[in-house]
């Protein structure tokens, strides 16, 4: 059994003009697919792990044989993070969480109001040195936190529960935005799938 590449939940051009179709195609079909290929290759020597959800591997990397642990951390993280990223976006999306929703209330409680949250998330994400990700996650006490991870590291490895992510590897934006990461992050807010974020938050409360 090997992991499979999920189809995008929308067409390549669905996030235009904020994220261009060509970037989305290369990002999913090439970069994401490569992480998947390398993860499956690493697990050839540990077939018993192939039956586990990839997320579970990241939650307990110490249970992964040391000989393939780094490969699973990098390629497994890349595979899982991208699956999460695609679902964090949608066409005709953006704006704010549904008014009166639990996740909207949680954001207001943690950060004061949505505009403050948005500014803090953008700052932390743009400031990530090199390649990585910006996250909104729940910590072990169930509190919302903004943080970033390097390379393909996953919040799951830190015992956190991710709710939203923005990919700031250059391949996520370079064709359209070149070195203007901040412009990409600004545009990304227009495609945030708050319905999905709300579902994730609700699931975490059960």
Please characterize this protein's 3D structure.
Helix content is 47%, strand content 10%. By secondary structure, it is mainly alpha-helical. The protein folds into 2 domains: 21-87, Fe,Mn superoxide dismutase (SOD) domain (Helix Hairpins, Orthogonal Bundle); 102-204, Iron/manganese superoxide dismutase, C-terminal domain (minor pseudopilin epsh fold), CATH 3.55.40. A 3-stranded antiparallel beta sheet has the order 2-1-3, sandwiched between helices. The longest helix has 22 residues, at 21-42. The mean pLDDT is 97.
Report the principal-axis shape.
globular
Low-pLDDT stretches are none
Q: Estimate percent helicity.
A: 40-55%
Number of strands: 3
Termini Cα gap: 31 Å
Superfamily (CATH H level) name of the largest domain: Iron/manganese superoxide dismutase, C-terminal domain
> Which CATH C-level class of the largest domain is it?
Alpha Beta
CA-atom Rg in angstroms = 17 Å
Assess the beta-strand content as a share of residues.
5-15%
SSE ordering: HHHHHEEEHHH
Counting structural domains, the number is 2
Class computed from helices, strands and strand pairing? mainly alpha
* Biggest sheet details: 3 strands, antiparallel
Strand order of the largest sheet: 2-1-3
In CATH, the architecture of the largest domain is 3-Layer(bab) Sandwich
Number of DSSP helical runs: 8
User: Which fold name is given in CATH as the topology of the largest domain?
Assistant: minor pseudopilin epsh fold
């Amino acid at each position: 059994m090997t992991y499979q590449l999920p189809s995008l939940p929308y067409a390549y051009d669905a996030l235009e003009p904020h994220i261009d179709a060509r970037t989305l195609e290369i990002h999913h079909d090439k970069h994401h697919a490569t992480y998947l290929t390398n993860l499956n290759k690493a697990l050839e020597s540990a077939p018993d792990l192939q039956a586990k959800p990839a997320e579970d591997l990241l939650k307990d990397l110490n249970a992964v044989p040391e000989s393939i642990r780094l490969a699973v951390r990098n390629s497994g993280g890349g595979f899982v993070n991208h699956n999460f990223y695609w679902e964090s976006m949608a066409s005709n999306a953006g704006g704010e969480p549904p008014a009166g929703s639990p996740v909207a209330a949680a954001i207001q409680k943690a950060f004061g109001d949505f505009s403050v949250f948005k500014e803090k998330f953008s700052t932390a994400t743009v400031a990530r040195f090199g390649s990585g990700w910006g996250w909104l996650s729940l910590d072990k006490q169930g509190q919302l936190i903004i943080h970033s991870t390097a390379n393909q590291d996953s919040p799951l490895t830190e015992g956190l529960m991710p709710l939203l992510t923005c990919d700031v590897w250059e391949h996520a934006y370079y064709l359209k935005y070149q070195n203007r990461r901040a412009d990409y992050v600004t545009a990304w807010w227009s495609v945030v799938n708050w319905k999905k974020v709300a579902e994730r938050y609700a699931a975490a409360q059960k």
